[in-house]
């Protein structure tokens, strides 16, 4: 225990990692210092997001994926060569915070009991603490702690997501969207939002009636993008024109949904496009899990070989910076507008003496120059 | 930003599957503004200590109705010590005979709550004793 917290984290000490995540969750200057020290040690892990509606089986799927990666994965996570080293896996599972009490019931570990006792796995439950995008504010920072601690694969499970909780795409390299049969017709699949952020689809509970229909609805949605090239909003950003080669990644309803290796394609050379594969799974029976894991690894390889990884890292960094600036600005603004001034303005809005837009502008104008330190 | 949120692990060691009580407690703690990690039934001492370590909880609440508390609780406490988590508040509930209470308290289980305890009392106890 003579090590400093940072040394403990870098050495992969579980107590140090756990305490560091608490620190970043509770924010503050100490957390910022820690993250600053850890930053140079991050960037090695592959980050996988798992999102989907409540009850779609995300936790069970994460449990099955982690088991698979620990036991059966190829040695592709370590450059060591022939010796197979199972990847170390960090899991962050986010559940919602009650808007009324501020408390939370974090139940994702219930589905992950198979992972207990494996020292190569670290599971942390997080409450969303008021953030609405499907993650907690501190999730990205907790990912950094795990990354610096040497976890090769970090799986982030979001809050049960509806249509618009898309923050995960800014945090993860590979986003897995979990669907289940019977949620809606193909009109749902055309809607904007969560379906657009998928790098890989899992249709879980595929033993239920309607699984093929769900797969078909997703495929139709994907195939609507028939153009050879297109612009895509990917991970919250407008990506450049991407050549789409539907032949390369076209998948069938059979269980062999592994995208072909880059070298096996007709034109040879690196894959330059990605067509999100759709994998049927029954997580409770571990069916389709190997194929899903392969699809995740294939996407990782695609990102590396196509050069998209570097670009996505830039996007991630930019998005993160933006978020920090937003939060910090908000904190400073609120610090100066809280109190009697705000109460007075709220009263005037209620009395219809002023509209909220004008009031907000006036409030902001009044603090613009006054506040530099974020203190009242 | 705000005062630190209390994190609690609610665990059911041993082989009994009666988790209604544990769920009621978990719900009450949630409604009291705490973050409750619930791990489900049939947890070994190793699983409980490991979860407490990874989740960095401030409090562990164990519920047991099988009668195996004198065998399982000491193991959990030993493991927590091994992990350097001796500052965690440990409370217990379920069916624990009065004659076992002194021994469990000597082990470091600070609050033992039997049937009929109000959830308010448990919330209050945790708030008062958490470090």
What does this structure look like?
The complex is a heterodimer of chains A (376) and B (131). Chain A is of the alpha/beta class and 376 residues long. Chain A contains 13 helices and ten strands. Helix content of chain A is 40%, strand content 14%. In chain A, the strands form two sheets. In chain A, strands 4-2-5-1-6-7-10 form a seven-stranded parallel sheet, sandwiched between helices. In chain A, a hairpin with a 2-residue loop joins strand 8 (229-234) and strand 9. In chain A, helix 2 runs antiparallel to helix 5 (139-148) and helix 4 (58-71) crosses helix 10. Chain B is α/β, with parallel strands linked by helices and 131 residues long. Chain B is built from five helices and five strands, in the order βαβαβαβαβα. Chain B has a five-stranded parallel sheet with strand order 2-1-3-4-5, sandwiched between helices. In chain B, helix 1 (20-31) crosses helix 5 (119-129) and helix 2 runs parallel beside helix 3. Chain B starts with 6 loop residues before the first strand and ends with a helix. Chain A binds chain B through residues 1, 14-15, 18-19, 21-22, 26-28, 97-98, 100-107, 109-110, 113, 116-117, 122-125, 127, 129, and chain B through 1, 4-5, 7, 26-27, 29-40, 43-44, 46-47, 50-51, 53-56, 83-85. Strand 3 of chain A pairs parallel with strand 2 (35-38) of chain B, so a sheet runs across the interface.
Mean pLDDT of chain A: 81
Number of helices of chain B: 5
Oligomer: heterodimer
Order of helices and strands of chain A: HHHEHEEEHEHEHEHEEHEHHHH
Strand proportion of chain A, as a percent range, falls in: 5-15%
Rg estimate of chain A, integer Å: 22 Å
Question: What is the CA–CA distance across the termini of chain A?
Answer: 40 Å
Q: Largest sheet of chain B at a glance?
A: 5 strands, parallel
Tell me what portion of residues of chain B adopts beta-strand conformation: 15-25%
CATH superfamily of chain B: Cobalamin-binding domain
What CATH first level of the largest domain in chain A would be assigned? Alpha Beta
CATH architecture title of the largest domain in chain A: 3-Layer(aba) Sandwich
